[in-house]
Amino acid sequence: MRRLAPAGLIGPVTVVVGVGAIGPLIVLLLYSFGILGNIEDPGTQLYTEILGDSYFRGTFVRSLRLALTVSIVSLVVAVPLAFRISRSRGWARTLLTCLVVLPLLINIVVRNLGWVLVLSPNGVLNSWLEPIGVSQSFLGTVTGIGLVLVHVSVPLVVLPLLASIDRLDPAQSEAARALGAHPAVAFVRFTLPAIAPGLLAGAVLSFVIGIGSLVTPIFLGQGRTMVIPTLIVQQISTFRWERAAALSMLLFALVVGVVVAMQRISQRMARGRTERSRRRGPILRPRPLTDAAARLNHLPTFDGLRRWVSRVYLVVMTAFLLLPMVVVLKTAVDDSQIPTASWHGFTTEWLQAAIREDGYRTQLLLSFRLAIVAVGLGLVLSLAASWAIARYRFPGRDAVVAFLMSPLLMPQAALAVGFVLFFLILQTDPSFERLLFAHVVVTIPYMTRVLVSTFENIDARMEEAAAACGARPLTVFRKITLPLVRSGVFTACLFGFLQSFDEAAISVLIASGDTTTLPVKLMSDMSFQPSPVGAAISAILIVAVVAVVVPLERRFGISSSAVLAGRDDD
Amino acid sequence: GGDDDEPAAEPAAESDTETTEPETETTEPETETTDATETTDAADTTEAPSGDASGFASMEEIAATCPADIAPDKLVLSTWASQEELIGPSFDSFTEATGVEIEFLANDLGDRLTKMAAESGSPTIDVAIVPINEAAPLFENGVTEAADETILNYEQLLDVAKMEAGYGGSIIQFGIAYNPEFVTEVPTSWADLLSDDFADHIAFPTMPNSGGYATLAMLNRMEGGTDDDLTAAVELIGENSDKIATFYPNSPAVEPQVAAGEVWIYPDIGGAALASMDRGNPIEFTIPEEGGPVGMNTLVVPAGSDHLPCTLAFISHFIGQEVQEAWAEKLYYGSVSSNFVVPEGLTVYPNDPSTIVEVDWATMSANGPDTIDLWNRVVVG
Amino acid sequence: MAIDVNDPAVAPTATTDPTSRPAVAAAAEPGAARLRIEGLTKTYVEKDGPVLTGIDLAVAEGELVSLLGPSGCGKSTLLRIVAGFIDPSGGSVAIDGRDVTTVPTHRRNVGIVHQSHALWPHLTVAENVAFGLEMRRVKRDERARRASEMLELVGLGGYERRVPGELSGGQQQRVSLARALVIEPDVLLLDEPLSSLDANLRVYLRDEIRRIQRDLGVTTIFVTHDREEAMAVSDRIVVLDGGRIAQTGSAVDLYRTPVSHFVMSFTGATVEFSGTVADDRGRRVVHSDLGLPCPAPSGLAVGDDVTLCIRPDDFVLGGSAGDEAAVVRGRLVDAAFLGTSAEIRVAIDAADGPTDVLVRLPARQHERLPDVGAPIELTVERDHVHVFATPTAA
Amino acid sequence: MAIDVNDPAVAPTATTDPTSRPAVAAAAEPGAARLRIEGLTKTYVEKDGPVLTGIDLAVAEGELVSLLGPSGCGKSTLLRIVAGFIDPSGGSVAIDGRDVTTVPTHRRNVGIVHQSHALWPHLTVAENVAFGLEMRRVKRDERARRASEMLELVGLGGYERRVPGELSGGQQQRVSLARALVIEPDVLLLDEPLSSLDANLRVYLRDEIRRIQRDLGVTTIFVTHDREEAMAVSDRIVVLDGGRIAQTGSAVDLYRTPVSHFVMSFTGATVEFSGTVADDRGRRVVHSDLGLPCPAPSGLAVGDDVTLCIRPDDFVLGGSAGDEAAVVRGRLVDAAFLGTSAEIRVAIDAADGPTDVLVRLPARQHERLPDVGAPIELTVERDHVHVFATPTAA
Ligand SMILES: Nc1ncnc2c1ncn2[C@@H]1O[C@H](COP(=O)(O)OP(=O)(O)OP(=O)(O)O)[C@@H](O)[C@H]1O
Ligand SMILES: Nc1ncnc2c1ncn2[C@@H]1O[C@H](COP(=O)(O)OP(=O)(O)OP(=O)(O)O)[C@@H](O)[C@H]1O
Ligand SMILES: NCCCCNCCCN
Ligand SMILES: [Mg+2]
Ligand SMILES: [Mg+2]
Predict the structure, then answer these.
(1) CB-CB: which of D2, D71, D341 is closest to C372?
(2) What sections of the protein cross the membrane (chain A) (predicted)?
């Protein structure tokens, strides 16, 4: 019986993810080879056509470069922030954590609108830069798209990094300094490798976001920047399903390739020399670069300058993370029908309109209900699976964990199309249930991630002690385990809720009139015609989420369980 | 010139000149306005019974084609955002008569097409509004039903609105919107869209977008091309793309940039421009001297729906006076029906038959995928 | 000797009716084997081989047995099998004569105290302690009363309403003990309960545990890798070596008459000399740097290498060799005063070159030491020289 | 006494040119204060008050000084200030007479060994050890040679190509030591280097550390909260109490002549009796359960409460009171054999009710003990009774 337990607990969630992520993938695969669809004779011709066309290749390169740049820039700006948060305590930590997660809490379309108003030629940024004689429009440039993607990547990079940094042994860099290494040398050679797992997790997440994003390139790209997801969607709207499927598969392959490469690099960083080279090569390998680094040791440590730079960094970072949100809040109460960066006067008209029946109330309630039910189901599924994963060592355990994370790796656009085609084949009834199924699938990776780490952090002996006191397994779970993982469960639910509540790319293709979710309606409305009412509903949500999250963070320490979730358990 | 300084100009089509065929048809309503009884009689003589003096089928007649025993609770109408608010009220009478609610599914055009195609055979959408250029591909890919010529009010449709791939829903005309603060002289040519004077302040529709096709067609003709090959125009845009501040998916999406003074001039639908002015957008609208192409919002019916009879009943209502009037009042769009009576004192586009330019939508949409591929390479990069 | 109360071979009370087993330890038949482990074997991973092999152990009513051994020798595994957290690969566990090998933990009536305390942070001290009673459906008032009593016993009266986070490490450990004891377990299992605590507290708590265990007469297994701890608390010590029992006996047995080099070196410091078995007129004797010939242990052949081990405290300062004693001569290299004793390092000339030996003297002798570098003489009696086959290098 | 080589007050070599400070310890002026700490104060958080207060300490060339004290007394803080990881709030640190208070760590030439070893897991053992040389831009061949030599010295020759993950805890600790030593540090700082290891290894390694430190003559500060460890390795021990130096001296000084109750109880076990200062014909004497009147320490008034402390090993079995000794009578409650000594618990009747005292006897006396429950007599000499003002309750 003991041996069967993991299978029974992990089975259900595996089936759901399997059907929900692998199903669409297989459908895409079949389309791309023309086995499904309207192509005369099945084969690889679509792939040869795409790969043989320099335009497609160029677009792949652009997408790849964009995503890699986003990933690297996110890491670079997130590392100091993560260190800063790791060092802070109490309210400072709460506020910094909330600051960092805020970009996750705001609807993607509205966030993009905020950025458009910040970055446009007569926008907020230029109004600040003009006095010093610089003026730069990022709209319609890859840089602009990258900037906005970095904005939403930062939280997803900071959280896993925090986990690594919180577990960092400061003695490792101290030892290096005592041996004569300049703090900068010690950081690069010892701190970075030690946080490599966190860097990897962050890099992967931001890369996947960068390469799969659909909405941001449309908004910020202003119709002049083509990336693969846009191309895929364009193929579909011109009824070239098979080509869309082949592009999706190539994109997926690219993501898997890059993620594997990132994993390698991070392992190299963390592990140093390969087994072979250390057994065979010279005892000490030549290190021309670090020999040069040793020269740094005579430089001053610039302590004063560092403190100053760190303050400036914090201010700039705060502005970067908050600015689009501030603009949205402004738009929500500004007396202008057309959202702009300038101020016209105060009004509550939009706020009132937003919560009216014919505003967003219906969709808000639907999204709320959907998110609650999806999180409820996701919780039941992932709670059981996470507990089993944390408590049992069984063959294929790592594979199961990786598998449950797989919906995260699939580019949004590909996953969305896959879902639709998949439902088409299943011929299921269009309904709330379809939407629910998709939402459960996309929330599970986040929830499982948080919960597995939470359970792993709970000493299994607490459960043993309860068994020794005479408690039956279910009693142990109810009276001991659950209360102990409360904050982890809470965090998982919060993450799952936000994931579902903000999901648009898939829902828009599933939604019907009475199953239009809030983000879908916002996306439809705002992409057709940006309006202050859309900003108003978002403003209401920002305020509501902050009002809920700040006290809960104080009480339960969401940040720490979120941090756990980012932990790389290799 | 057909440019109006006042948004709320004289009612459309006071002219009787018959320069083009569509013009003939657009002018017809006026004739009918003046001769209402006569038209009613004429309608009466056709096979379809006519319930009122307007020449349109009465609501009872329409409701009779969607009897209660087959009537669904609701029909899903997929269209652009904001339409529920604008034309939704004109569906209330239909709901009252049939008990069928009209549910709006607002979405982006691309999402609408993707969804329809993906659900092909078991649609969740009963009727969708798409630009004229998208109707034929949907039909040819088996996504939508062929139009049913026997429905009520079909007879009265203008010829352009009678298509195999769907039913015309409203007529629109493209022209140029501009901000008079920066564009001090009224643009007179489509070529002004690419003027150096407005460099960095021009917005252009992206592809695929019917406004994009329409504008490309005009530029293409000026370059000496024909509608079956838009290469010259696409290349022209490519050469001038540095001057263009933004390529927009829908003209309302460019409003914040217009309001911020970043965009000065862009192609727009006449009615959409007037509606935009109503929202306080600081623009004027003009039809250039070359004239403005007309297009059409098209009603298409996804194939395989269980609700077909009631959907058709709804379309009959849609192409009748009440709905057409709502389009005209809220969006200044022209009617597809020869029986339509333009309400007193309202400007709708096209309002001057002399400005109407017909473009070959069928060919352009057939060539759509190739044009888009070319556009991607030459303009988007 | 007063503390040596145990008798390793106790008859099992195999016929006791398992259903009517007494709840309170004191009510059980005195001297019976409360816990009997027979032929216990455990293999986690086939290719790593067994972690425990053929363990036989009977623990008498009220006895405290320590499991002593190096890290990884299987102490925790054995304890966890008794608790029912893991299944053995072979053999059986019986409590009060009732075979519990396949009985799940929650129906075994064992108390357990983990090294990490494993208190439940979301419950108060009283709730922690009372949990086991709650599982036994004891009424609430009664639960509160008995929890308080038990807390009183471990010296934590008045701490009922605190939560574990508000207690020091030592207090937490005592709550953990109270929690395990309040259910009046048939067997109390302690897995290195003190190793996370600091030295002073460790000594204090081990004495407390011993006192409480005696007072309640609860049958106890105490796992540790600290020999002093094992010696301080146990009636009997089981030394485990690589999953097998190396020796079972009292502290004195293990310290004074170890059966193997492993047991000798694991139960205390040793000074070692190497030697070989030689033939001395038909008797096999051991020759070594120590001079004094000793009889060779049985099972060794002439020419075998042996190690002569002496407890460092069996040396006496000064040279007074007789027939039965050896005198070691060397130079004093170093002397460290350790409070209760003094540790000196003496360099001697052995056959295979000069070597240092570390000898421990009662602290007061420290004052009688010669200067560092001066010659020094140490005497050891033959009875205190233990001879073992030289262990093969690890 | 041979091992007591230290002289606390050594003149600083304040005039040494800081730029030309010798790289190798041996080149420094012998007997000079290698490290001099003056008036050192540290406050982390204003409202928590200072963590260190007015610390003055001079460590001579080649000397090993231990910092001994309970958790939180500021040992690590002091060490980290010397290393330059944190800045002091006041006072100065000088190495070889050069004030380094504001010099960053990497230009101080200190070696440090952390409790957690802090080896870099992605570098080989050789790379770990050679890192400090790399930072000093020593050529690669030379680095490899010196790293290997140092590994040889710590008994890890041949381990160059391993990674830390392939070493045991003790081996890791030795690599950490080699890494700190290879740069020939002016001062070696050890922060509880052994506390993560198990008991046997701890004893072995502390002797190794002591040997290597002596061989290289490197000036060392050793932080520990384990008194036996401190006593075993140090030339001199500094006992810290709440951020202040409570006493400085050799192990014998601290054990035999502690200046306060805190030092006495922190440096070894004690048996305590309470007493009061009384007036005996003009002299202030201490009256207590012990019978034997002792002179009261200065600074106490008649009527003050005092505590009489005796080392448990200062008791001798048997009653033979004289003028200068007291006899304690009681019943033997318990006796535990601990290998080198035996610990017995004796119940005596004190003025304020019966109390237990724990006494430690040389192990051989164990055999002469009466049965548990029988009367027992213990003698203690007046010189071995330490009288202190009773500490106010914590
Ligand atoms: N769940 C497990 N799966 C596989 N091997 C295990 C497992 N638990 C323990 N082992 C192995 O069994 C052996 C004995 O482990 P055990 O924990 O019983 O040792 P121990 O004597 O308690 O050691 P320590 O003093 O370090 O706690 C070790 O080699 C260990 O690696
Ligand atoms: N960075 C810090 N910020 C604030 N307080 C600190 C900091 N580091 C140490 N302290 C406090 O300073 C005091 C001394 O700490 P320190 O680490 O020096 O003690 P220690 O003697 O090394 O203790 P241990 O034996 O537990 O290592 C403690 O009360 C500790 O809480
Ligand atoms: N608000 C009215 C939306 C209609 C937009 N139609 C644009 C496409 C026409 N071809
Ligand atoms: Mg263990
Ligand atoms: Mg410390």
Answers:
(1) D2
(2) 7-33, 64-83, 95-118, 138-163, 199-220, 244-262, 312-333, 366-389, 401-426, 432-452, 488-513, 533-552
